[in-house]
């Protein structure tokens, strides 16, 4: 495959003391050499692979020194893209990074499209599609756990599982072929029926198992969108503050990947919460009163988790009761705050209202009960199961969609076998399942889909 040489900034714009401009392609070293002035006239084309060199970057037109740089030279195929890769480390300011990038473009590189480095790694056979997508997830990973899931996927854990399932289906299809080729033997038909049921059942169970991990995967990747509701003055802002203060946001720093901008995230015992920022919370303070139970239900429906706060030192009001109505059927944790003050709330009624939810009492002022709240959050979402380290999480929405379709067609196949549908119809469903699973690892994907996938990547990756 003949691919041109691409370049992009592969560190976040305007951040950090050092920025990297990365080049990949046949001409990467040659282009860099036209710009680089090493100590004692050193040329990059002569240096050993995987070494780093100090020097100056000059504008070849004017011979003016543009930047002080460190340049890494990595010759293919032992690189991320399998092509020759040069990384120019320069000062992190916006102006100097841009200057370096512009110089490489003037010298013959082409500005990389979003995700193009990863796309090349895929096209050059370095990684499969699910691994490529994992790179994107890594960039966005918000907690250590999310990172491990993405890393596991990149190492090909999901790919291996999918490949094994496809192999199972192929073997099943082979049995079907025998049946179609020798329909006159009764015992072949009986054996086929038996093998089909067993194999198809196995495949269905495995797909279901993978899908079960997807909800947790989504949470790990995107964070639980969490809304704190309650009447004014019950302690919502205080709750937000103690959650933020006690749980520092995780900053991922993986060599060779872009450090994405970190959002206001908190990691509560492995559960990433995406808390509405203070401004957002303020707006929802009187949400139920302002827009009514029905409308607020609509708004709250978007949330994965509701933290419903009540005031221990005040009577329950109709407003409190309305909030309970608005969050019915959702994942709710009820927090009775201000227990340091004399009790006025009717706890029997609270217990009645909260009978389906965990109920926590807190004094946020005195820092009491926050641990219990965190425990409740983690129990609610992990129920202990997520700790299993060898579990494969499916967290990518494209994978989930494909797995659901694959589940549909394998169930069609199973129903077919059970109700005695002609075997060649069953064969079609099995083949379809095989194809759908193949799309996850990019083995039966159309070019256009590939382009679409890679365009989602950050520029420079
Ligand atoms: P919000 O209006 O629901 O966001 O409530 P705030 O978090 O702004 O708190 C309202 C007031 O209650 C503030 O003065 C807080 O300091 C106070 N407060 C919050 N939690 C407690 C608590 O546990 N005990 C006491 N005594 N006061 C609290
Ligand atoms: Zn507030």
Automatic annotation (TrEMBL):
Mg(2+) binds at residues 237, 258. Its EC number is 3.6.-.-. Its cofactor is K(+). K(+) binds at residues 233, 252, 254, 257. Binds 1 potassium ion per subunit. It is found in: Cytoplasm. Gene3D superfamilies: P-loop containing nucleotide triphosphate hydrolases, Probable tRNA modification gtpase trme, domain 1, tRNA modification GTPase MnmE domain 2. Transmembrane segments: none annotated. Residues 223-382 form the TrmE-type G domain. (6S)-5-formyl-5,6,7,8-tetrahydrofolate binds at residues 22, 87, 126, 461. Pfam families: MMR_HSR1, MnmE_helical, TrmE_N. Keywords: Cytoplasm, GTP-binding, Hydrolase, Magnesium, Metal-binding, Nucleotide-binding, Potassium, tRNA processing. Its main location: cytoplasm. Exhibits a very high intrinsic GTPase hydrolysis rate. Involved in the addition of a carboxymethylaminomethyl (cmnm) group at the wobble position (U34) of certain tRNAs, forming tRNA-cmnm(5)s(2)U34. Homodimer. Heterotetramer of two MnmE and two MnmG subunits. NCBIfam families: mnmE_trmE_thdF (TIGR00450), PRK05291.1-3 (NF003661), small_GTP (TIGR00231). Belongs to the TRAFAC class TrmE-Era-EngA-EngB-Septin-like GTPase superfamily. TrmE GTPase family. This is tRNA modification GTPase MnmE.
């Amino acid at each position: 495959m003949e691919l041109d040489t691409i370049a992009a900034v592969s560190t976040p714009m305007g951040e950090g003391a050092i920025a990297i401009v990365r080049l990949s392609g046949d001409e990467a070293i040659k282009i860099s050499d036209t710009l680089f002035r090493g100590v004692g006239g050193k040329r990059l084309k002569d240096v050993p692979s995987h070494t780093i060199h100090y020097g100056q970057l000059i504008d070849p037109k004017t011979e003016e020194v543009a930047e002080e740089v460190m340049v890494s030279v990595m010759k293919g195929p032992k690189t991320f893209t399998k092509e020759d890769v040069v990384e120019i480390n320069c000062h992190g300011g916006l102006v100097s990074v841009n200057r370096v990038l512009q110089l490489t473009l003037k010298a013959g590189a082409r500005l990389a499209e979003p995700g193009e480095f990863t796309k090349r790694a895929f096209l050059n056979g370095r990684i499969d599609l699910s691994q490529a997508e994992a790179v994107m997830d890594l960039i966005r990973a918000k907690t250590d756990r999310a990172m491990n899931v993405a890393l596991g996927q990149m190492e090909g854990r999901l790919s291996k599982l999918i490949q094994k399932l496809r192999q199972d289906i192929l073997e099943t299809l082979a049995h079907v072929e025998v049946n179609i080729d020798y329909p006159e033997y009764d015992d072949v038909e009986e054996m086929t029926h038996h093998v089909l049921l067993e194999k198809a059942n196995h495949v269905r169970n495995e797909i279901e198992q993978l899908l079960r991990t997807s909800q947790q995967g989504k949470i790990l990747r995107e964070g639980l969108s969490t809304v704190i509701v309650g009447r004014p003055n019950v302690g919502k802002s205080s709750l937000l503050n103690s959650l933020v203060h006690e749980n520092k946001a995780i900053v991922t720093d993986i060599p060779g990947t872009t450090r994405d901008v970190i959002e206001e995230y908190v990691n509560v015992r492995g559960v990433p919460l995406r808390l509405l920022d203070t401004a957002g919370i303020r707006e929802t303070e009187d949400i139920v009163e302002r827009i009514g139970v029905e409308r607020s239900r609509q708004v709250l429906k978007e949330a994965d988790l509701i933290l419903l706060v009540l005031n221990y030192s005040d009577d329950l009001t109709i407003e409190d009761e309305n909030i309970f109505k608005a969050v019915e059927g959702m994942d709710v944790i009820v927090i009775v705050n201000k227990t340091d003050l004399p009790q006025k709330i009717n706890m029997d009624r609270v217990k009645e209202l909260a009978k389906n939810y965990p109920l926590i009492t807190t004094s946020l002022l005195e820092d009491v009960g926050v641990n219990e709240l965190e425990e409740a959050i983690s129990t609610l979402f992990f129920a202990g199961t997520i700790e299993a380290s060898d579990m494969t999480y499916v967290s990518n929405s494209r994978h989930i969609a494909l797995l659901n379709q694959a589940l549909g067609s394998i169930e069609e196949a199973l129903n077919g076998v059970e109700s005695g549908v002609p075997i060649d119809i069953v064969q079609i469903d099995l083949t379809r399942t095989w194809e759908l699973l193949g799309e996850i690892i990019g083995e039966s994907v159309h070019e256009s889909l590939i382009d679409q996938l890679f365009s989602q990547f950050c520029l420079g990756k």
